[in-house]
Every structure is written in structure tokens, then in C-alpha cells.
Write a structure and sequence with these properties.
This protein is α/β, with parallel strands linked by helices. It contains 13 helices and 12 strands. The protein folds into 2 domains: 109 residues, Enolase-like, domain 1 (2-Layer Sandwich); 239 residues, TIM Barrel (Alpha-Beta Barrel), CATH 3.20.20.120. Helix 5 links the parallel strand 4 and strand 5.
Length: 367
């Protein structure tokens, strides 16, 4: 199968990709969120020239050739752009086969347990607990993630004492029957991370995410080696050699690739296999209601070392106003703390025509 065109529809926050094959069949994917308009330009300038009218049967090899041709640009933007092509091709394959992507990957449609993922630090522990209790009662969530420290905070808290307060508050208010997770977003030195980790252990938390600056793998390993709680990370990493090193040195107990930061489904499957060989579970990062959460749902229904949950953002229009109105029919419905992967072909979702009409349009190839 060869592609005759690659089209993008983007805003600064999110960007969708449509590929059209020689026979006119089409698939939809997405470049990574955040500065997606820039990423769309990278896709047209640095990915499309090496992939249009090329055989896409071995997509892994095709993406490797993009990497090789653009070897002077090894960083995040190229991977975020490659992800748009990759995910659109998987949708195209699913539609041609009449199967959901999960089934193409060796899995099936069905449900997944989700954890309610809070993005907020500008909220008191009391108010955070109150809104999470409402979600528990209304939507059946039985796992929750909150935030510790300040984002890349150099050991500072969002305000003095917030971390020491939120840890016991979450356990006391939500009870012993829920799983609690926490994300430090690269806040701590190893010494402080270990202090916080011991508090987390004392209150039965299960998951301590990105405790140290994510690029300092030795620091993260020091924390993981000192604690019993699972230390997790990897969402930011897009270089497969760093992933290999992270897993080989056991810097984390659970790996958290972001499908769109990493470069798509194919490259994520390589990380999944590295983790499987090392006996590590995979709980991907997917922190908004663009297509990234949908991609992750299909992946988790297929891989043998899927972690215990799907990350599911709980933020409303005050935090992520751009994530509303993207789809004709949202694929994100929580019932009993679970979300369903549909059995519709491909990704099983339709982008809103109204949203597309307001986006920035660019095209490569013969549209």
C-alpha cells in the first residue's frame, strides 16, 4: 500500500492527520498535542518527502528510514510528527480489514479499568479529595492519581506543606478500597524523593511517577532501589536508545511511554517488547481527550504486559478547553470505573467536521 497524500488539520493545541492511499482509502491519526501546528509543518517538511508513494507494508522500516534521512533531527518534534503518519496508517489498515486496531495488534475490543488522573496542583487537598469522591460515587472510579511537589520544582512544593497534607488526605477521604497514585513531574532530588516515597508507602500509595528530573536516569534508579512503591516514568522519552538504557538499568518499575511523544504505535510496540523481556508492565501516559487516549486504549487491549489501568484525564474546560468538540461522538465514557474499546474498524472515531473547518489545513502529495 502506498500513500498518495498526507493532510493535516491543526491548531496550536492539537492536530489530526488524514492519509489517502492510491486506491482512495483513507485513515485518520494525530500528531502529538501541544504546538501541534509546528509539528504539522515538521510532518510535511521532514516526514512526507520520505514516505509519500513508498510501500507502507513494513511501517517499522519506513519510520526507521525517516529517522535515518532526518538523522540531524533526533528530537521530539520529528517523533511527534511521525506519530501522525503512523496512527493514520493503523486506522487505514483497520478500516480495510474491517477490524479495530486492537484486533490488528493481537487483542480485541472490550473494557479497561481506568484511573482518574488529576492534572491540578492549584487545588487544596481538601477540594481535590472532594472532587475525586464525587467521581468515585458518580462514575465508579476505584483508582486515582494526584500531584506532588511543583512541576520540575527543584525540591519546592506548590506551596509549603501541600505534599505532606495531600498524601494522608487522599487515603483518609477516599478509603482503603481504592488505588492511589501520585506524580511528581520531575520535582525532587533523590534525597527528597525518597522521603516523599516513604510517606507514600506509609499511606498505601501504589505508584510514584517521575520523582526526579526524568533525564537523570541514575537519580530515578536511586529512588527506585530505595523504595518498595513502584517508581514509574518514561512519558517524555522519544529516543529508543534511552528506552533501552532505562529498562536495562531498571531505572523504573513500570514504563510509561506516550504513544504520540514516542512516534506512534510501531515505536511504542518496540518499547513494549523491551519491557516485556525485562518483566516490566506498561502503563502509558495519555493525559487528555484527544486521540492519544483512544490509541492507548487499543494498545492496552492487545499487549501481554499491560499495566493495571488506563490513565484518564478528569479535567474540564477550565483546564483543557481545546479537548472539547473534537469528535462527532466521543469515545470516552466511564461506566463503573471502566472505558470501552469499540469493535468498529480502525480507531472507530470520526473527527468533527465543525472542528476541521476551523483548523489550519496543509497537504502534501496529490490530494
Amino acid at each position: 500500500m502506498r500513500l498518495r497524500s498526507i493532510e493535516t488539520f491543526s491548531t496550536r493545541d492539537v492536530g489530526f492527520v488524514r492519509v489517502t492511499a492510491e486506491d482512495g482509502s483513507q485513515g485518520w491519526g494525530q500528531v502529538s498535542t501541544y504546538n501541534s501546528d509546528i509539528t504539522a509543518q515538521v510532518l510535511h517538511r521532514q516526514v512526507a518527502p520520505w514516505t509519500l508513494m513508498q510501500d507502507t507494508t513494513d511501517l517499522d522500516d519506513l519510520l526507521d528510514r525517516v529517522t535515518e534521512r532526518e538523522h540531524k533531527f533526533p528530537g521530539s518534534y520529528l517523533r511527534r510528527a511521525m506519530a501522525g503518519l503512523d496512527t493514520a496508517i493503523w486506522d487505514l489498515r483497520g478500516k480495510l480489514a474491517g477490524k479495530p486496531v486492537a484486533e490488528l495488534l493481537g487483542g480485541s475490543a472490550g473494557t479497561l479499568r481506568a484511573y482518574a488522573s488529576s492534572m491540578k496542583r492549584d487545588i487544596t487537598p481538601k477540594d481535590e479529595a472532594a472532587r475525586l469522591k464525587r467521581l468515585r460515587d458518580e462514575q465508579g472510579f476505584d483508582a486515582f492519581k494526584v500531584r506532588a511537589g511543583a512541576e520540575v520544582g527543584r525540591d519546592r512544593d506548590e506551596w509549603p506543606g501541600r505534599t505532606e497534607e495531600i498524601i494522608p488526605t487522599m487515603r483518609r477521604e477516599l478509603g482503603d478500597d481504592v488505588d492511589l497514585l501520585i506524580d511528581a513531574n520531575s520535582c525532587y532530588s533523590p534525597r527528597r524523593a525518597i522521603e516523599v516515597g516513604r510517606m507514600l508507602q506509609d499511606h498505601g500509595f501504589r505508584h510514584f511517577e517521575e520523582p526526579c528530573p526524568y533525564w537523570e536516569l541514575e537519580q530515578t534508579k536511586e529512588v527506585a532501589d530505595a523504595l518498595e512503591i513502584d517508581v514509574t516514568g518514561g512519558e517524555q522519552d522519544c529516543d529508543l536508545t534511552i528506552w533501552r538504557r532505562m529498562i536495562d538499568m531498571r531505572a523504573v518499575d513500570i514504563v510509561q511511554p506516550d504513544i504520540l511523544y514516542l512516534g506512534g504505535i510501531c515505536r511504542t510496540l518496540r518499547v513494549v517488547e523491551m519491557a516485556r523481556a525485562a518483566g516490566l508492565p506498561v502503563t502509558p501516559h495519555c493525559a487528555n481527550w484527544s486521540m492519544v487516549t483512544l490509541f492507548t486504549m487499543h494498545l492496552l487491549r492487545a499487549i501481554p504486559n499491560a499495566g493495571d489501568y488506563l490513565e484518564f484525564s478528569i479535567e474540564g474546560p477550565d483546564y483543557y478547553p481545546w479537548q472539547y468538540g473534537l469528535f462527532v461522538d466521543s469515545p470516552y465514557r466511564i461506566e463503573g470505573g471502566r472505558v470501552r474499546v469499540a469493535d468498529a474498524p480502525g480507531w472507530g472515531v470520526e473527527i468533527s467536521p465543525e472542528w476541521l473547518a476551523k483548523s489550519r489545513y496543509e497537504a502534501s502529495g496529490a490530494v
